[in-house]
Amino acid sequence: MPLFEVFVRPRRGLQHQHAGSLRAEDAELALQYAREIYTRRREGVSLWVVRSSDITASQEDDAPMFFDPADGKPYRDATFYELPSKVRGL
Amino acid sequence: MVDAADALRDAQSRFEQRLTRDERVEPKDWMPDGYRRTLIRQISQHAHSEVIGMQPEGSWITRAPSLERKLILLAKVQDEGGHGLYLYGAAETLGASRDDMIDALHEGRAKYSSIFNYPALTWADIGAIGWLVDSAAIVNQIPLQRCSYGPYARAMVRICKEESFHQRQGYDIMLTLARGTAAQKAMAQDALNRWWWPTLMMFGPPDAESDHNSESFAWKIKRYGNDELRQKFIDQAVPQAEVLDLTIPDPELAWDEASGHYRIGPIDWDEFRRVVAGDGPCNRQRLAHHRRVREDGAWVREAVEAHADKTRARGLRARVGTGSR
Ligand SMILES: [Fe+2]
Ligand SMILES: [Fe+2]
Fold first, then answer.
1. Which of A24, B34, B276, B324 is most buried (most C-beta within 10 Å)?
2. What is the mean pLDDT of chain B?
3. Residue A23 in contact with partner chain B when CB distance is under 8 A
4. Other beta carbons less than 10 A from residue B142's beta carbon
């Protein structure tokens, strides 16, 4: 029985968030099970289920290759730029 | 080029650094076999406890004293089934199979919490279970929210949130009975008498005698000793019993000013060992029921599999909406 990952959108306007996993015979049943398991208390307004095997994930070993290039680029953040204290609305 | 031994050493040291930094281990990370085995054992036994725990309370659903109590109890028992499923799911991220876990339960290779081998004799037992047993479960589970294995820790966060409803509805039943007629109050007292000691045993044997502990601490699966957690439970339960105006069935129970804790009389560990070994009041009944339900439901699982195979064979896409709503 395939493993599915469950994503729940807590409210309209928010993104779906990973809630956990479950096993189901197919996607349609996975959706039914997800409703029973992960949204008994109005935790969400929408559910996604994705076969875990369909997720391509970056590997831990590749983390430096993936994420190091973002290091040392503080100029991408607004706080990098100092403004004269009189300036408003920037 | 790194050879296999170097790669393994690297993975090992990364795993250890992660524990030192209090980071979570995730399913695809390298982990030692012992860590994986220990987790599968603990998580699956935790899952079994949730599911077997549905039986004593489930037996009162049809006999709840009002429609409201019945709805509440149904929701509570359904939650426990849900807890079992979160936990089986977490064990499955480690490569465990559901069938193997259930077989281990049926063959006695895997245990479940000894508390569920006691019967729920009266309606007051439903109050005592929610108040005491769920409170004890919360005390055990709160530190597990910071367990080093990510899926287990996250399942615990979800579970703890739901447990507080369980605890409150139990206390509410006790409060109602304790403030009721003399007979109702006596019923509440009787339930407290029967559930108090088995609840204290839920935390496991004293640390000095408890096996497979030290590794669990090193791996940050366990963070507090059995005695420490038991004490925490006692210190919160005793004043709660006072509010109910019920008596804890322990003549030696006393407040110890110096330590700031309640002191209790000796726990009957022989009883605990007997129940764990299979000789509690309901062990056979609990397992027989679980086996029967699994067998009775086999045709449903087979039918669902057959349907899924047929749908796949026809090349029909499941009627699932994509995107958002
Ligand atoms: Fe639970
Ligand atoms: Fe519970």
1. A24
2. 93
3. yes
4. 17
Q: Which residue of A21, A39, A46, A55 to mutate against B (max B Cβ within 10 Å)?
A: A21
A6 within domain boundaries: yes
Two tokens at B184? 């109702």
Q: Specify the CATH number for the domain of residue A23.
A: 3.10.20.520
Is residue B195 within a helix (H) or strand (E), and if so which, with residue range? helix B182-201
Interfacial A residues in 51-70 facing B (CB < 8 Å):
57, 59-60
Nearest by CB to A28, from B158, B318, B325: name it.
B318
**Number of compact structural domains in chain A:** 1
Residues ≥6 apart with Cβ < 8 Å to B194: B118, B121, B125, B128
Say what the ipTM of the complex is.
0.75
Q: State whether A28 and B86 contact (CB < 8 Å).
A: no
Whether residue A67 is contained in a domain is answered as no
- A21 contacts on B by Cβ (under 8 Å): 89, 92-93, 151
A36 interfaces chain B, CB cutoff of 8 Å: yes
| pLDDT tens-place string over residues B171-218 | 999 999 999 999 999 999 999 999 999 999 999 999 888 765 688 999
- B-chain CB neighbours of A29 within 8 Å are 304, 308
- Beta carbons of B28 and A60 less than 8 Å apart: yes
Tell me the residue range of the domain where A20 lies.
1-55
Query: For residue B219, how far is its CA from the centre of ligand 1 (angstroms)?
Result: 24
Establish if A9 belongs to a structural domain: yes
Q: Which residues of B24-61 are buried (b: 16+ CB within 10 A; e: fewer)?
A: bbebebbbeeebeebbbbbbbbbbbbbbbbbbbbbbbb
Residue with tokens 């957690």: B229
Q: Identify whether A73 is part of a domain.
A: no
- pLDDT 10s digits, B112-129: 999 999 999 999 999 999
